Amino acid sequence: MSRRAAMHVSRLLIEQARNKAFSTAIFKDVGISNSASHVPGGATFHNHGIFRAASTVRVRHWSGVASDVAKDEKAAPDEDQGGRAVVSSYWGVAPPKISKADGSPWRWNCFRPWETYTADTTIDVKKHHEANTFMDKFAYMTVQALKYPTYLFFQRRHMCHAMLLETVAAVPGMVGGMLLHCKSLRRFEQSGGWIKALLEEAENERMHLMTFLELSKPTWFERALVFAVQGAFFNAYFVAYVLSPKLAHRIVGYLEEEAVNSYTEFLIDLEKGLVENQPAPAIAIDYWRLPPNSTLKDVVTVIRADEAHHRDLNHFASDIQCQGHELKEYPAPLGYH
Description:
The chain has 10 helices and 2 strands. By secondary structure, the protein is mainly α. The termini are far apart. It is a multi-pass membrane protein.
């Protein structure tokens, strides 16, 4: 093959690669035969599978491109979705049509009606785990050391305090559930429902945050603070759970005790009129099945009940392991959320 012919073949291959990488066009006529082909300059070469491979690449490229019919389909408004457009997918995963008990359309994609619940507001919010052992005292003092800077920073700004608190409180359940999940896979054993319980806790804490975001918007400084605190706390709690799960659960138990105390102070200021008792956001009314005329006080009350439940769950998990047992030996307290 002459030098000129070789350069021409190289240009053709580069052109094919460019079409594959930067074009979504579908080429239906390859127009290259497997017989001898001529190039400028009179040189002749044989297509020993070069263009056959190029056409194969094209075919493979076609498999990742939507069909012409799918491209031409337009999203049609759906009356059940409040007039919003419904995305039409090639894979056929149609969004379910969900309605409330009164027949009105369900407006939340982050949770479904069967995931809502009525919080147990009769739960004892004054319970406290006495720190008798060295581990318990270490966990308690760790939480106290973390508490005071937070109180000094937020003071009586309960809404901002609650938002930051929930960004941190949603981390332990996710970390614990993730590590228990990996442990269950490694050991080929069930978890007694504790994976689900901890992930439910994390999701519930995140819903607390979504509720407060409807009532107050964080500033750029508070968002930056969340980045820093969450990054440090996630890694610290991950290491703590790997080294000692019972210590990690005890720390969370004391953290939840402080959360209960914080929301109790929130309620006191609401009753005194120091904080405006504004109407409850719609997401809170649907998530906790509250009456339509509920207020912020009702929302804080059910959130405090959730925190008290998380307190009991984590102290219970720590007690199981402190007595020499594994979590899987005792069924997790599911069914609250």
